[in-house]
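[audit] Reproducing an earlier prediction to check determinism. Same input, same settings, fresh worker. If the C-alpha cells differ from the archived copy the diff job will pick it up downstream; this log only records the rerun itself.
[audit] input (237 residues):
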Amino acid sequence: MGMVLVTGGSRGIGRAICLAFARSGRDVAFCFTKDEKGAAQTARLIESCGVGALSVRCDVSDEASVSELFSGLPGLEIVVNNAGIALFKEIQYTTYEEWTRIFSVNVTGAFLCTRAAIPVFLRRGNGCIVNVSSVWGEVGASCEAAYSASKAALIGLTKAAAKELAPAGIRVNCVSCGMIATSMNARLTKSEADRFVSGVPVGRVGQPEEVAAAVLFLAQHRYMTGEVLRVDGGGFM
C-alpha cells in the first residue's frame, strides 16, 4: 500500500483519520504547526498499529513549507486536507486579517497541497484527495461568516478538482462535518451544545472516529469522485 498524508494530524479529527488509515495497514505521514506534544502522541499511536509514522512541522498556508513537505513523501497515494481553523465573530467585527487568515489555512492550504500532490499522482497514474469541510459551508452559520465561506470554497474546490483530475485517475471527494466533539467546539456552553443537539435527529454530537470512517470510505471507494458526504447525524437533511 502507498502512503497517506493527513494535514493537521496532531489531535482531534486529524488524529482519528491518521489512526483509521494506520489500522487499515497504511504508512501515515501527517503535519502539524505548533502542537509538538500532540504530534508526538499521534506518531506513537500510529506506530502502535504496526505501520510507519512520519511527523512534519508544516504551515499549509505557506507555499515553500508545503513544497518542502511533499518533497519527502515516497509512495504518496492519498492526501487528506484536514487542517483548518475557525472564527466565531460577527461580520461587522471581523478584521481583514482574520478573514484572510481563515482562508489562507482552510482554502489556500488545501489548494497548495492539492497542487503539490498532482505531479506525484500523475507519475503513479492514480491518486486520491479527501477534503474535510463542514455543513456550515453548505448552509452558513450566524457569526461564522469567514469559516462558513471558507468551507463553502473548499466544497467548490473539491467539485472543480474532481472534474479536472478524473481523466488522470485522480479522485477528489469531501466530507462535510456537522458538530463533532473536538476542541474547536469546546467554546460552546453545555446549554448551547444541548440546543444544537436538540435539532439533530440522532440526538448527539459526532465523534472524530466517525468522520475518520467516512474519510477512509471515500479513499477506498474507487467509483466515487466529486462527492460531498455529510457526517452530521441528519441535522441538515
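[audit] rerun output stored. Observation attached for the diff report: The beta strands are 3-7, 28-32, 53-57, 76-81, 127-134, 170-177, 228-231.
[audit] end
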